[in-house]
Specification:
- This protein has 162 residues and is an alpha/beta fold.
- Helix content is 39%, strand content 12%.
- It is built from 6 helices and 4 strands, in the order βαβααβαβαα.
- A 4-stranded parallel β-sheet has the order 2-1-3-4, with helices on both faces.
């Protein structure tokens, strides 16, 4: 009989500036977790190159999230820190650059925690969460929502052992 992995309790979503994709993903993942009755799981976001920090998400990101019923205006940008690797069970990057920078920062014993949010997308065929500056918000939000739903299904919904 195989053992189930422990349910992740702290998830960190990472992009470059922590002003658009990672706060959007934080809001959407929080909503999916709450919908699944998993409000005990903590979700945070950070950026690999945040300046100056403590800034709210981009205005358009706030607007687009609110149109979907997700409120992110209270979030503030912050830099990814070494402590994040110890404190979080999963660190999910939005793109390859963020992934490489996070993986490069991670102590060897925590490197396995770094992955991609897009790998959990079930309907959208993506390897990264696209930047809305390149694809528009509709595409970015579709990818984020799909990947967040997929993450909850794959990691937190328990299935009977076969």
């Amino acid at each position: 009989m195989s053992q189930l992995k422990p349910t992740p309790r702290r998830i960190l979503l990472v992009c470059i500036g922590n002003r658009v994709r990672s706060p959007l993903a934080q809001g959407f993942l929080r909503a999916e977790l709450d919908s699944a009755g998993l409000s005990h799981v903590q979700v945070d976001s950070a950026g690999t190159n945040v300046w100056p920090g403590s800034e709210p998400p981009d205005r358009e990101a706030i607007f687009e999230a609110a149109r979907a019923g997700i409120h992110i205006e209270h979030l503030r940008s912050r830099e990814l820190t070494e402590a994040d690797f110890e404190q979080h069970d999963a660190i999910l990057a939005m793109d390859w650059d963020s992934h490489a920078l996070a993986e490069g920062m991670a102590p060897a014993e925590h490197r396995h925690k770094v992955g991609h949010l897009a790998q959990f997308a079930r309907r959208e065929k993506v390897t990264t969460i696209p930047d809305p500056a390149a694809t528009g918000y509709a595409r970015t939000l579709a990818c984020i929502q799909d990947a967040c739903e997929g993450w909850v299904v794959n990691h937190l919904v328990r299935r009977p052992a076969r």
